[in-house]
Description:
Layout: E1 7-11, H1 24-36, E2 39-43, H2 53-64, E3 70-75, H3 77-85, E4 92-98, H4 106-115, E5 120-126, E6 146-151, H5 162-174
Helix pairs in contact: 3-4
Amino acid sequence: MSGDGKLVFVKTGRGGSVYGYNNKYLNLAKSILMLYGYSVVISANPADSECNLKEELEEVKEYIGDYDEVYFIGVSAGALVGAQQGYMNEKISKMLLVNGPLMINWPKTKTGIEKFQGNRVEMLYGMRDPSYKYFEILNYINSDKLERDTVEDADHNFAGKEKILEQKIIDFINN
């Protein structure tokens, strides 16, 4: 969805579509466009492909133009992409990483967040997500840009908690 000003780039989970569980990504894009007028790109994450965030952001530039500032939102494996590759793009000013798997290549995740050049990284976990049991490991990330947040009774998909997730995203964009 093309708008003005900033770009909100949403990377879905592995095998995820641009629609998401109960159309959560499509609804989110509509809300962001309506509230802020920002462009929104939702990037699917096919199960059989390697993700290169830098290449994807270059491709966005070809289709909807260049942006001085990008807000990255990654969900599940998309959060892993942001944590591990987001620091390589100086236009990403802040990242919201939702239910990223903490048990997959933790050293690369930790290093990526510590090297992040932007202003803020928020890691959000549902307390019923499988990675939540590793949540305390986030305390070992050496970054004053890192914020941690949880949602009680939310599972990996935020099933039944879609409105809470959408509000968390809106709050992230506002701050």
